[in-house]
Fold these 2 entries.
Entry 1:
Amino acid sequence: MALTRDEAWAKLCEWTEGDALRTHARAVEIVMRAAAHQYGSGASDEETWGIAGMLHDADYEKWPEDHPNRIVAWLRENGEEDIAHAVSAHYTKWNVPHESPLDKALLACDELTGFIGACCLVRPDGVRSLKPKSVKKKLKNLKFAAKVERDEVAAGTALLGVDLGEHIQFIVDALKPHASELGLEGSQGPPAAES
């Protein structure tokens, strides 16, 4: 039986108490659901890809030194080998081969989604007017969101075979409808209601 989104979210919440990592998990889930249509087989991949995005860091808060081994083991116990493999490969330095479109998309979406989120936090209107040019400029500033590994961003887009600017725009477009939920509205907050 396939793992449901509710079961995956329950596991995430059991192992991840912090709002920041839960929000990142939700953001990557949203982007990966969109990625299933952009880089995968569409609707038939959406649930699997979304759960992979949601759970990729599920064990990081409690067991950072053992990440991602615990979530990978749990996924395998639940018969989710494809998701387990993608999660085990979402960091190139672990030297796990990127075999499927899911593996490549998770790598390409994870770090960049987090980085785009950081970009939104310092903009008055958040994600609403964010352009790839601005994100690329901030990627060059190694002091901005310093924990984001630029090598992983480059490796992900290369493996997926996409242009960085186009991939940034894809992620921005996926996040925009969820700006309020994800806290990506910027320092001005939500747009004023039109009268």
Entry 2:
Amino acid sequence: MSILTENIAQVRRRIEAAARTSQRPPQAIGLLAVSKTWPAESISNAHAAGLTHMGENYLQEARAKQAQLSHLPLVWHFLGNIQSNKTREVAAHFDWVHAVDRLKIAQRLSEQRPAGMQPLNICLQVNISNEASKSGCSPQQLPQLAQAVEKLDNVRLRGLMVIPQPSDDVEEQRAAFRQTRMLLEQTNALLQTPMDTLSMGMSSDLEAAIAEGATWVRVGTAIFGTRTP
């Protein structure tokens, strides 16, 4: 068994254990492999080990890997901050976008989604820890943003994404994820179609995220190892 295959099996065991502890079905939690900075070969190997959802942060790098791996039935998630001049390619080549924090970006993604494609799945990024260094709308801005995005034609508002301030304290981790879940529930009361997705939790805190309702955990290091420069 390769190191990558064993890493994936170990992450799956962690997800299953956390789900059992939280009395949630393990199949309710998706494993999104954060493959940024890793070559197409690593993604191909991850797919061979059973993963189909890949997350990328950098558009040019992602597009090169998509071209190399077009023969594989992969589902591509864009995780990075999106500049206005990148929306057309993101709209055309990804299935999910996890980091929309402005209406302008959502509008461009909707307008530029090619005809005949399924609506682009969108998660709104919330700056849950109010960090100046991180993107995301504020919790106060979320209701208005969500209601506006819901009305767009070619995107589907699926949920929220957060990257809380790092902490080794499990209770602090859970508090940030709990706040996100409560924000989703509160915002859903204002929407015609409720959101169903919480994209939260990474290699170091996925157990806390699952305990608070995560439906996607975004795992890079625990699958691929320490990232290359």
